[in-house]
Each structure stands twice: as structure tokens, then as C-alpha cells.
Amino acid sequence: MNRINYQFRQMLFKIRYRKKEYFMYMASFYLGLLLPAFCLANIRSTDQVIYFTTFENMENSVQIDWFSDNFPDVQIEGAESISVSGYYEEDFAGWGHQYVPIKGIDERYMYPFPKVKGRIFEDHELREGEKVCLLSSQYAKKHSYKEGDLLSIRNVDFKIIGLMEDKIYPGILIPYAAMKEVYRSGNRIQLTAMILAEDKGDKESIIAKAAEAIPEQDENAEIIGITDGEELYRLSQETRLRWRFMRGAVAAVSIAFFLLNEGIVLMEKVKKEQPIIGVHMAVGATKQDVQRSLLFEVLIITLLSASLVLITILPLAKLFGVDRIMIIDTAVIAEFLAAAVSACELLAYVTIRKIKPKQIAELIKTRDG
């Protein structure tokens, strides 16, 4: 243990004495790790989008979208469950005439709820149209709102019961029944009915009935389209796999170039330090001591560089306008640190093997001139 502590202190002394050189090593590692980190954060964002746009038994569902200025109570014969939601972009004059998406959902809403600071809706609030809402944390931070505050939508006050932290919900969620009261008439609202069939084989019948029922129940309906839920689910999974492959390929190529570049850097570092290594071995240091010292150095450089990447990645993403397609959470941090440390320690191990055959006399020989 004393031997290890001595080596560790010597390594820290060397880093402090040659800090400019080690700063360049860290900068090189930082630049090499930055792109893989972006790719991991982007993959995580895509996974989250897929999660929030799919739900259980989606293969047995049918989605119908239409524009209308009415809020019909949709009834479809043979449907196991029907969830109706509304979507409208509201001009908030108090927010600099910013258009904010407002979505009204009912108590049968089938998609997952976002992660919320506070609480989500209770069933009776959705069913009875209570004046409560969930606000995007982005707008809450920008306009200084917090839980319990009142938010006015067309002169109707809604109590903020939670702040949505997931970027997939960028605006405001309110009960569909309350949306009926706020937008009574004269507004073209995009409505969506998600219809769950009792059996997968009933979907064709449901599609035909929905195509007839919506115009009958809403004379102002302008049908946008009818989509099979199975097709939506298949497309979402294909998009996920395709996006993962593309970003994974980019990350793999960038890591390969990183390993190649840093391998050359470490090789040159070892060659440059061979006289010092020879002196240490001449006074009793073993090959294992030398190997351990290099592994420690690479570990410290990697952790410092990876930490700097995690600290700066979101500001850089905002600077280049890509922060909305990135998520940095504990899963991304753990995966990134594990990949970075594994890759760099593997690189250090390969470098170590290059110094094994050297004799002490060869290590400590000096250069002419």
C-alpha cells in the first residue's frame, strides 16, 4: 500500500511539474470524446421520443385526425376504448406573442405521461375539466412560473400542478373537458381520436366506422387522415433502429479515430519518458509499478476530460442549436463514462505492452547532443 501511495504521489508531482504538457493531453482526449458523447445523448433523446409516442397494445389501435371548431363526444361502435385529445397553438401576448402548443387530454389518454416536478392529473380532474395544467419547465423557467401559480389561457386561470421536464412535451397540458370551455367556438382545433379495438381483427371495421361516424357526429369535421396503430408502431421502431445505427456508426468511427490518435500520442509519451522509467526501474521499480503508474495517469486524464465533456456538452449544444435533440441523464452519463474509461484504459494497456521488452540499460541511455 505504501508503494502504491508513493507512486501515486510521484505521478501527481509529475503532472503538476509538467502541467502544460498534461493540459495538451487532456485537450486531445476532450476533443476525441466530445463527438461520441453527442451521439449517446442524441440516441437517448430518440429513445425517449419513441417511448412517449408509443403505448401498450398500440398494434390494436386506430388513429383518426381532423380539424374542427367543435368538441364532439366521439362514439364508435365496437371500440373497446376511445381517447380524444385536442391541439392548438395559442398566441400568448404576455410572452411577447409567442405561440405555445396547448394539448387537451382526457382520462383515457393512452400515451405515457412525462416526468413531472409536482404531480400529474388525477382522473376526476381530466373527467370533470378542472382548471389545472402541466407547464413545460422550459417556459416555467423563461417566464418565472412555479408549482401552484396561476396561468391564464384566454382569460381563464389554470393552476399549475406540475412542471414537465421531458422535452417531448414542449408546451402546456390541460384537461380536454377544460379545453372545450376555453375554445368554445370559432377556433380550428386539431383533434385526434385514438380508438382501441377489442381485437386486432376488428381494426378494419373500426376504420370504416370511424370514417363514417366522425363526420356524422361533427358536421364541421375536416378529416386529415386515418392511421393504423400497428403501422405507427412499426414506423417508430424502424426509426429508432435506423437512428441508433446511424448515430452508433458515427460514434464508432469517431472512437476508432480517437483511439488511433491517442495511441500515437501515448506512444510518443512513453518514448519520451523512457529515461525516467529506466531510472525508476534501476532503483527498484517493477514493470508492474510502471504499468500501474501509466494506467493511473491515463485514468486521471480520462476522468478529467470526460467530466469536462459532460460539463460543456449542453452549453455547446445550445450554442449550435441542437440542445432539443439531446438528453443528458444518469444513464447517458454512466454509459459515457464506462465507454470512455474502458477505451482509454485499453489504449493504455496496448501502449504498456510496447515497453515490456525494453532492458533497463536501454531505457536509461541518453541521447547525443
Annotation keywords:
alpha+beta; 369 residues; 54% helix; 10 strands; ten-stranded mixed sheet
Report a brief summary of the structure.
This protein is α+β, with helices and mostly antiparallel strands and 369 residues long. The protein has helices at residues 2-17, 19-52, 123-128, 137-143, 176-182, 203-217, 229-272, 274-282, 287-319, 330-353, 360-364; strands at 61-68, 79-92, 98-105, 116-118, 132-136, 150-153, 156-164, 172-175, 189-197, 222-228.
Q: Given the structure, what is the number of helices?
A: 11
The radius of gyration is 30 Å
Largest sheet: 10 strands, mixed
Oligomer: single chain
SSE topology string: HHEEEEHEHEEEHEHEHHHHH
What is the tally of beta strands? 10
Low-confidence stretches: none
| Estimated structural class | alpha+beta
Strand content: 15-25%
**Overall mean confidence score, pLDDT:** 82
Description:
This protein has 369 residues and is α+β, with helices and mostly antiparallel strands. It has 11 helices and 10 strands. Strands 1, 2, 3, 4, 5, 6, 7, 8, 9 and 10 form a 10-stranded mixed beta sheet that branches. Helix 9 packs antiparallel against helix 10. The protein is elongated, with a radius of gyration of 30 Å. The model has no long low-confidence stretch (mean pLDDT 82).
Break the fold down into its secondary structure elements and pairings.
Elements (H helix, E strand, L loop, with lengths): L1 H16 L1 H34 L8 E8 L10 E14 L5 E8 L10 E3 L4 H6 L3 E5 H7 L6 E4 L2 E9 L7 E4 H7 L6 E9 L5 H15 L4 E7 H44 L1 H9 L4 H33 L10 H24 L6 H5 L5
Parallel strand pairs: 3-8, 5-7
Antiparallel strand pairs: 1-9, 1-10, 2-3, 2-9, 4-7, 5-8, 6-7
Helix pairs in contact: 1-9, 2-7, 2-9, 2-10, 7-10, 9-10
